[in-house]
Structures are given as C-alpha cells and as structure tokens.
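Record type: ASSEMBLY
Status: queued
Input:
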Amino acid sequence: MTEKSSARILVLNGPNLNLLGTREPKTYGTTSLGDLEAMVKSHAATCSFSVDFRQTNNEGTLVDWIQEGGKGFAGIILNAAAYTHTSVAIHDAIAAIKTPVIEVHLSNIFKREPFRHHSYVSDVAAGVICGFGPVGYILAIDALESMLRHQS
Ligand code: DQA
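Status: finished
Output:
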C-alpha cells in the first residue's frame, strides 16, 4: 500500500447542516447530509482517500475535531456553517495544527447578507470553495489530492 492509498481525510460540518435537504432549499438545495456523505465517500475512494464524515451543532465539538484532525489525517474539509462568521476558537484551532484545511460553503457567502462576508476560517485555510453546492465538497477533495500529490 502506498502512502497516498492510506490517506485519511476528515470532513466536518457545522450547525444546522444536519437539516440539509429540507433547510432553505432555495439556498442550500435538496441534497440531504446523508446523500452528501455518500457522494463525498464515493468520490474520495477514486482518489484513494478514506473519509471520516461528521456533523455537529456544537462549536466546542468542532474545535475538538479540528485538533483531532491535526493528528493522523492528511487533510480536513470544513464547512463550519454559521461558526465561520463568529468563531475565534475555530480560527485558533486551525492555526494550531499543520494539517491543511479547505474551507467549503454550499452557498456563495459573498452574494448573501454582509454578516456572511467575513470568515474567521479563510485566513488560516489552505483554500476556500463556495457557491457550488455539494460539488464544492468534491472540488475540495480534488484540491486536497492535488496538494498532497505535489507535496510528496
Ligand atoms: C454555509 C453558509 C453559512 O453562512 C451558513 O451559516 C450555513 C451554511 C454554506 O454552506 O453555505 O449554515 O456554510
């Protein structure tokens, strides 16, 4: 088994993303979190990544999981949802680890209310993808795959 074939990635979803599929479908679409997880896992398998896919409504749990992602994971894909715009604790957790974090949002946060235009994640993330719905998670996997390939 090559190093790449054993790479694990952590996909973290923040508050209210458990409601995907029924939550504000005009903004977030009709794909459920379960469907999104299946899409992510199936695409990740083509890149030889194994995926740990999680969701929580709690800020501290996201902080704990980001710290966990700093040990033994090749990358983190993070949709911190509303905490993106409020959480210094999440910013600091990302700054404290070496694992690359890709920030993802389903919606284009820059086309929305001004309070969504600032992210506490972006300046500590390796990159940001927003506005492409569930496809953004697939693009994030490809971005991680490319980053890790160029590192090795
Ligand atoms: C979101 C955008 C955030 O502003 C919002 O609070 C979310 C979801 C997105 O995926 O588009 O809950 O992160």
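Annotation: The chain is about 35% helix and 15% strand.
Annotation: Residues 16, 79, 81-82, 84, 105-107, 109, 116 surround DQA (CB under 6 Å).
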